[in-house]
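Working notes for the structural subgroup meeting. M.R. asked for a predicted model of this chain before we commit to crystallization trials. I am recording the input and output together here so anyone reviewing the notebook later can reproduce the run.

Input as submitted:
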Amino acid sequence: EKSQNLENLKGESIKRYEFTTFHQSFSYEDFIEGIKPVMDEENNSEVGYEIQDGLFKKISAKARKNPDQQYALFIDEINRGNVANIFGELITLIEPDKREGEENELSVVLPYSKKPFSVPKNLDIIGTMNTADRSVEALDTALRRRFSFIEMKPNSKVLKDENISCGRVDIPKLLDTINLRIEKLLDKDHCIGHSYFFKLKKDSSLKMLQRIFNDNIIPLLQEYFYGDFGKIGLVLGNAFIEESNTNIDVFHKGFNYEDVDLLSDRKVYKFSDVNKLSEKDFISIYG
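Returned structure, recorded in token form:
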């Protein structure tokens, strides 16, 4: 029905969601409410201050005025912000039984506006995060208890359903093979997402597949395995890794080192020129 769609009676678009990204500078003042500087319109040289609503408070107000419709707030990189600082009293208020109209409805007086605030029950909060990213802290335990966690695994079926291919290369099988090997060598959190290959939907040429590997897949594997070409070779195969010319005597002849013969025999590898690889080379990953 029209009432369930993002349209009003005039056929105009209605936005019932907001999207934001958490980062280290994101604060409670941005999310709930805070004192913000404003310019005096009559005298641009003067700066005043006023209490302004943050993103969450604004969408809560919209949801409260339209209780028959669901609203949503999407938070990308939710674990990159200081969650305890950003959410403040929301850590308690977002619990389902403490929403407006629920059994244990709860409201608090906000510190800046001094007005009561509660969370409407028709507002969903959806956060996304990369569990393989160890450069940021894990979510606060108190907040984790208030969210349901759903793992979003790489899904080659999506590629199959979208008929994403490149000549004779079976892209879904290619992705599954690479991820099976990564999971064996590392863990499932480091598997490669299917979205990398969506570029082939508009351009299914070999050149685009080469570009995806050159710009995305290979650099990612280098980061995962810290330049360990042996393990990268186990993932991609011989066509992608080749031995450098190490037969020449590269060490300084004037320095005597007892293990120089062992070092001279050490093999050094490098990546093949991806732009020269054929469909057959890509098929060799899983073939």
